[in-house]
TrEMBL record:
<dbReference type="Pfam" id="PF00483">
    <property type="entry name" value="NTP_transferase"/>
</dbReference>
<dbReference type="InterPro" id="IPR050065">
    <property type="entry name" value="GlmU-like"/>
</dbReference>
<dbReference type="InterPro" id="IPR005835">
    <property type="entry name" value="NTP_transferase_dom"/>
</dbReference>
<keyword id="KW-0548">Nucleotidyltransferase</keyword>
<protein>
    <submittedName>
        <fullName>MurNAc alpha-1-phosphate uridylyltransferase</fullName>
    </submittedName>
</protein>
<dbReference type="GO" id="GO:0016779">
    <property type="term" value="F:nucleotidyltransferase activity"/>
</dbReference>
<feature type="domain" description="Nucleotidyl transferase">
    <location>
        <begin position="2"/>
        <end position="126"/>
    </location>
</feature>
<dbReference type="InterPro" id="IPR029044">
    <property type="entry name" value="Nucleotide-diphossugar_trans"/>
</dbReference>
<dbReference type="InterPro" id="IPR054790">
    <property type="entry name" value="MurU"/>
</dbReference>
<keyword id="KW-0808">Transferase</keyword>
Amino acid sequence: MKAMILAAGRGERMRPLTDRLPKPLLEVAGKPLIEYHVEALRDAGFFELVINHAWLGEQIMQHLGDGARFGVKIRYSPEPEGALETGGGIYNALPLLGDEAFLVVNGDIYTDFPYATLRHTPRQLAHLVLVDNPEHHPQGDFSLENGIVTGTGKGALTFSGIGLYRPELFRDQPAGAFPLAPLLREAIRCKKVTGEYYRGYWADVGTPRRLAELNEQSGREVPHG
């Protein structure tokens, strides 16, 4: 099974840190964030990776290369200036991802999630990993009922940015920029999305403050992949 790391975002909320450095190369405990993902995926048995890029993407390619030094094979999915949003970015990478189900991981999270548990084809169009709501997102995204993801409501959890997808989820979409959320919500409405609740370590590294906090915690042995 192949895995995709989403790394094309401009990182507006991370400015000025991302004015001259792409967000995936920002460091946690002295190592670029994207390296944690590459290594965790490799250790979980994902050896074929696809990484999309836009803003300063050449720096990501120069840093990771073809993946050989990490023991993986990396192929890149370049996007135009401004990127294609999450849905459009995945759609654009489908020729590299193939006809089978694939794993997608947001490049701006930090987690010890065991990716090896997701080396399977989802029963429905998608399978999402949900986590406790962070302080900055208290309302959550989706609820979970007997392994089926439902709309928001009491007990809603936050989508972690980790998901398994079948290519069919994107089948009727036009090329170009579009968000992933509407596709997921329609599939959820049709009860075609399964999910799981992960109680381990997870952080959204979306702002300079959160990055600084994570680096402070890393000195106290914050777990990672």
